[in-house]
Structure to design on (228 residues):
């Protein structure tokens, strides 16, 4: 009787935890280094936006450093999750959707972090037009693009896990809800109130991805048919 090979790959629980820790560290560090100054959105008056970056370069640089870094464990988490789903016998298009969404979200975090870092450079933050353009790019990548990518990722994992019973129904339902809120952020490009879906997708998504990682790791072993 042929033995079923053990899954070989990094722990998706650890990767999810590191991603969340790095992202939250960026928020905390940025808040502390701003010395009480309130966060400002790219929709604020141009001069206020320029002054925010001109007066808080270290806060912007450190928070962008953590945001950029958080993309690495998330990207590894995404591709490892796809690998684990295939190891567990999933042979559906959902795994490719999961991979696509994970790559979109990862690249979005990289671009958002590096664009934010650029705004910490004094020569850049002196120009109102340049600051506005780069900040909108960073905001859109870290917000809309990330949320849409994460929504696709959550949809791919949840739908395939629902049909193969790899995750409990309540968690697959939550993943589908996150997929919907993630895709609804697209409407923020024409209606500002739709930005409300971005923090829902991100912060509830943290809980979902960690729970999904734990339960997938504890799930059944490889499908014997696929292991052969």
């Amino acid at each position: 009787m042929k033995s079923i090979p053990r899954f070989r790959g990094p722990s998706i629980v650890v990767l999810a935890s590191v991603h969340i820790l790095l992202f939250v560290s960026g928020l905390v560090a940025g808040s502390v280094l701003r010395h009480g100054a309130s966060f400002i959105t790219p929709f604020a008056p141009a001069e206020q936006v320029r002054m925010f970056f001109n007066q808080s370069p270290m806060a912007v640089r450190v928070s962008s450093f953590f945001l950029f870094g958080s993309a690495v464990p998330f990207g590894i988490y995404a591709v490892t999750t796809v690998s684990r789903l295939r190891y567990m016998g999933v042979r559906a298009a959902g795994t490719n959707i999961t991979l696509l969404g994970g790559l979109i979200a990862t690249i979005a975090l990289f671009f958002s972090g590096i664009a934010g870092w650029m705004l910490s450079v004094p020569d850049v933050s002196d120009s109102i037009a340049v600051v506005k353009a780069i900040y909108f790019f960073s905001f859109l990548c870290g917000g809309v693009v990330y949320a849409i990518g994460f929504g696709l990722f959550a949809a791919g994992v949840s739908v395939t896990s629902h049909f193969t019973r790899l995750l409990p129904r309540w968690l697959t339902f939550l993943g589908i809800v996150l997929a919907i809120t993630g895709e609804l952020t697209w409407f923020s490009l024409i209606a500002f109130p739709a930005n409300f879906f971005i923090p829902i997708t991100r912060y509830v998504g943290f809980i979902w991805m960690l729970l999904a990682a734990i339960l997938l790791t504890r799930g059944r072993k490889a499908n014997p048919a696929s292991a052969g």
